[in-house]
């Protein structure tokens, strides 16, 4: 067994990671630019394509709308836009989210946060959890994913699943209800 100088929990940040680090972002956009060029959608420089792709974040649009954005006059590179290119752009969000998820999985593995509440626990929301789960609503824990340190929250106690919310947010914004 390999002896470590520091434990993972000493190396990883104490708070749940949100997004990518700057280095991860830079690497992500350069890799995506290389892939885009390799697939023949542009013949321009990697750095220019990467900068254009960075402009598309947070990838809220579909591939067709993102392709239209890349046709704008403020872009650094030229793109051969067709259906496959739009489909390629549709996958950007998934590739980015995959890295974000890995960051969370690594953080959970390093810190091993434990849920404070069990499935079936009834809560009163004291601080809005999101735009649908608002203050003064009654909600239940209907499950969760310990590997990501999240609960599944729902207003119906008999539903399997629900809105995915981090342990720490539920524990901060809810009070156990009788």
Short description:
It is built from seven helices and five strands, in the order H-H-H-H-H-H-E-E-E-E-H-E. The chain has 178 residues and is an alpha+beta fold. A five-stranded antiparallel sheet has the order 4-3-2-1-5.
Describe the structure.
Helices cover 42% and strands 13% of the residues. The protein is elongated, with a radius of gyration of 21 Å. 22% of the residues are buried. With 178 residues, the chain is an alpha+beta fold. It starts with 7 loop residues before the first helix and ends with a strand. It has a five-stranded antiparallel sheet. It has two domains: 18-111, no CATH class; 122-176. The model has no long low-confidence stretch (mean pLDDT 92). A hairpin with an 8-residue loop joins strand 3 (150-154) and strand 4.
């Amino acid at each position: 067994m390999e002896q470590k100088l520091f434990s993972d929990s000493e190396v990883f940040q104490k708070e749940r990671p949100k997004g990518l680090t700057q280095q991860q972002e830079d690497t992500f956009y350069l890799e995506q630019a290389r892939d885009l060029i390799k697939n023949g959608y542009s013949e321009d420089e990697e750095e220019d394509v990467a900068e254009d792709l960075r402009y598309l974040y947070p990838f809220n649009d579909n591939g067709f709308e993102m392709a239209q954005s890349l046709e704008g006059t403020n872009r650094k590179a030229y793109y051969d836009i067709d259906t496959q290119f739009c489909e390629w752009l549709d996958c950007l969000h998934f590739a980015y989210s995959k890295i974000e998820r890995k960051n969370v999985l690594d953080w959970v593995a390093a810190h091993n946060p434990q849920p404070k509440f069990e499935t079936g626990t009834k809560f009163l929301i004291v601080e809005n959890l999101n735009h649908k789960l608002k203050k003064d609503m009654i909600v239940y824990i209907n499950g969760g994913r310990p590997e990501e340190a999240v609960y599944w929250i729902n207003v119906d106690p008999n539903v399997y699943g629900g809105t995915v919310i981090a342990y720490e947010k539920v524990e901060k914004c809810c009070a156990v209800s009788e």
